[in-house]
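Box 3.1 A note on notation
Throughout this textbook, protein chains are presented in two layers. The first layer is the amino acid sequence; the second is a token string describing backbone geometry. Keep the layers aligned when reading.
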Amino acid sequence: MDTIGNLLTSIRNAEMAGHSTVTVPSSRLSQAVCEKLQLAGVVTAVATVEATPRARLELTLKPGVQHHLRRISTPGRRLYTDVARIPRVRQGFGTVLISTPMGVLTGNEARKARVGGELICEIYEK
């Protein structure tokens, strides 16, 4: 099961439907990705809702804006990069998220830290 793919699809569907919030299953990777999405301006707030049998993340979306969210590395095709080949999304107007040994970082943060890793997704405003 691709939890990050489901997270991105839930956000994309909620934006297209005009919803202001979306609730997704919580995991440590999903929470780290949501925090970076908040820094990128896709999500305005991230809250953890304790529920049984599993905690969930409640995301408040930025109103009136649709984003391009594309999963790059999938469970069937993992894509890794070194620091020299970190892609620039839309000539710097977008963001790429990378899972590194230092945690989930944006492309710019990974370049500054001189570390590569698995490409998670790319983000930009439509």
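The longest helix spans residues 3-17. The chain has two domains: 3-65, 69-125.
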